[in-house]
Amino acid sequence: MADERYDLIFRGDIVLGQPLAKVKERLQQLFKADAATIERLFTGRPVAVKRRLDRATAQKYQQVLQKAGALVELMPARAEADRGAGPSRPQRPAAPGLSLAPVGPLLKPSERPRLTPVSVDISGLSLRPAQGLLLDASERASGEVKDVPIPTFELAEPGEDLLPEHERADLPLMAVEPDDWGLADVGAELLRAEERAPEPPPVAAPHFEVAPVGAYMGELKRDRAPVAPDISGLRLEGEG
Hints:
extended, little secondary structure, three-stranded antiparallel sheet
């Protein structure tokens, strides 16, 4: 319908990723209102920020508010006769005997449990001075203090030998004469004929053939006598 009107309903929802403080600041600038007025929009209850707009105008306001970070819904406007009837959602009947308590303690002084203070005897307790021993001389365990040998270590300089001359082992030096050494050609045998391992003797492999699919392989079948169980002690239920 061309003459259908819409209300812009705000429930306190904002665009994902937008800071709440920034959204409230933009709404103050957009509506030219103070912080207290904008704060009343974020109570969680649906609030009509604009009423009885045509669809094109309502969508323009919706886009402007969305750019500011607020999410609003387009709801068909109610007739003038229904404005004083309250919200269209059904109201739950109030429970008899129930009411909301004011801000503060929920229990009356007569309803609070009374706790009996506990008396603790601290006459035998005292505080030691700071950085002092917690035990008296009579409370300490008596025992001979043993000397623990602690070796002295020193750090060597970078590149210094860790073993002194008298701790080094004398290793025999091997006499190497590289005069008769040479480089072999690429692909040449590095071992002489007398240095090679003997070749393994040839193994005579029998002649095998692959049988066709489904051919009889000549396997031996065992002749087994059929088992004859004794069923003389069994009977069917219901027989005499």
